[in-house]
Amino acid sequence: NVDADQQQPGGNNLEAERRLRQLRRSADWRWLNACVGIIEGDPNPVEAYLSSGGDPARTLTASEVAILNRSSAFDVGHTLVHLAIRFQREDLLAVLLSQIEGSGSGVKRVPSYVAPDIAADIRRHFASTIRLRKGNFPCNFVTEFPTFSLPADVDELPSTVQDQLFTELLDKDAQAELESDPAVINWSLDVTLRLGSRLYALWNRSAGDCLLDSVMQATWGVFDRDNTLRRALAESLAEGGHVFYPRWKEYEQGHASFLQYSLDETQWEEDWNGLISLAGQPGTSLEQLHVFALAHILRRPIIVYGVKYVKSFRGEAIGYARYEGVYLPLLWEQSFCVRTPIALGYTRGHFSALVPIEPYRPVDGRSPPGPDHARTTFLPLVDRDRKMLPIHFLTESELGREESILRQWLDVCETEGGILVAQQLLNKRPLIVAQMVEEWLNHYRRLAQMTAPFRPIPIQDYSSEGDTDDE
Questions:
Q1: Which of the following is catalytic: 35, 139, 210, 337?
Q2: How many domains does the chain have?
Q3: Which region is the signal sequence (predicted)?
């Protein structure tokens, strides 16, 4: 009996191993590799699973947990979303949520996902460019001013590959809403065709960080994953609040009186404190004041093209959206700021970076004088009815001088069709951003090579009679 008792565990182990081998043979390894990819931070097996039609809401079974054999990481009933949250894989979580939410965005392949290590270096570099201004207006500011654009090489890709690139890069829902009648972007053929200044809405994370993500994408081409820009924003409003507050209050009082209501000082201070609190909480949506403050941190204008009315999911107008317009760093000296703006789009509760495809050559057709020559795109300062975009947070004494103020802070000109536009200079990309863009673009170049039609080698290549004219 003793011998039998001693042999029993070994027999059980052999049986368990045999059963495990059977389970492994019949397992869906594309799904299991995606689970492992989440905890290891590797997007490739996750994208392979989703691209093959895998269900992002699929749950792990007991037998699959046994195969993976990592009880500290995997539990029965876990989905990819559970794993992404547990192991703080924010980029992968955004991809999964974009599919589950049914936004039609599918698998996303933005530059920072294709080159995550370079993107992390860019975020670290950005953090090193932030300084705090001393003196009467303690506000954070940046020391570098890149403007992100899509490379001109995108236009050289085959149409099928180009379509895939745009599907995986853009927020097609936001693009459609911004371009639908009445359009708020790309409504002028004068601007989009003659001046080559079409704008594209980049996809970003949707969990309350979209304003900060879109500002980072419009400048450095990455998300605010480390909350660096959010911290700079919260600190600036807390430290420089005594300078921001009077202008904010006067602006809001103007709106309140227009709507025939008023607040006492206690209520104004409560609203102000609420806005400061929002700035410091990752994942919380931000307001107009925060856009205004970000223009000061960036030391440059921000132009927001937005829907005029917020609509319900049934398409009914449920409120007026005030975001569209120009946000100038009015509290700085003009000499401390740059005149090249960035552009953002605003749809229902969501911000997107609006970026152009860089032009091959200047609009006038002349050759650039050197490699650092800035190419130019043009951003309308009027809506499709030729009504000037509002400048937010002007004081009463500044009202009525809007066009003059725009010309003080931006390089303003008119198109041949008489449209008032701001010039956006696209300087040479910072090297680290260029490396990320190149790595991202190489993915689609390889796709183009794989999908190119097969060309048989001419038979003359194998002849021994030397070269021919045909070759």
A1: 210
A2: 2
A3: none
Report the distance separating Cα 177 and Cα 315, nearest Å.
Answer: 11
Residues 46 and 133 in one domain: no
pTM recorded for the entire structure: 0.75
**Contact 394/405 with Cβ under 8 angstroms?**
yes
CA pair distance 376, 360, nearest whole angstrom: 10
- The residue written with tokens 């499709």 in the block is 384
pLDDT, position 439: 95
Model confidence over 9-27: pLDDT tens digits?
A: 455 677 777 787 888 887 8
Phi-psi region of 414 (alpha: psi -120 to 50; beta: other; left: phi over 0): beta
Flag whether pLDDT at 137 surpasses 50: yes
- Looking at the fold, whether 398 and 415 belong to one and the same domain comes out as yes
Q: What is d(CA 358, CA 377) in angstroms, rounded to the nearest whole number?
A: 8
Asked if 120 and 259 sit in the same domain, the reply is yes
Residue with tokens 């937005």: 306
Amino acid code (one letter) for 404: S
Domain of residue 26: give its range.
2-106
Where among 106, 130, 156 does a domain terminate? 106
Question: Does residue 210 carry a catalytic annotation?
Answer: yes
Q: What local confidence, expressed as pLDDT, does residue 99 receive? A: 65
Q: Which of these is catalytic: 290, 296, 350, 392?
A: 350
In this structure, the strands spanning 342-347 and 302-306 are parallel
pLDDT tens across 424-454, in order? 999 999 999 999 999 999 999 998 888 766 5
The one-letter code for the residue type at 318 is: I
Ramachandran region, residue 234 (left: φ > 0; alpha: ψ -120 to 50; beta: rest): alpha
Please check whether residue 139 is in contact with residue 132, taking contact to mean a CB–CB distance below 8 angstroms: yes
pLDDT exceeds cutoff 90 at 106: no
- Sign (positive or negative) of CA dihedral 398, 401, 402, 408: negative
Distances (CA, A) of 299 to 134, 236, 367: 15, 13, 30
Is 35 in the active site? no
By percentage, how much of the chain surpasses pLDDT 70? 85
The letter for the amino acid at 280 is G
Element (H, E) at 352: strand 350-355
DSSP 192: I
Query: How confident is the model over 261-293, as pLDDT tens digits?
Result: 778 889 999 999 999 999 999 888 899 999 999
Per-residue tokens: 287 = 């307001």
For residues 99 and 184, membership in a common domain is answered with: no
Q: Over range 150-175, report the average pLDDT.
A: 94
Q: What is the CATH number of the domain that holds 32?
A: 1.25.40.560
Count other C-beta atoms under 10 Å from residue 2's C-beta.
6
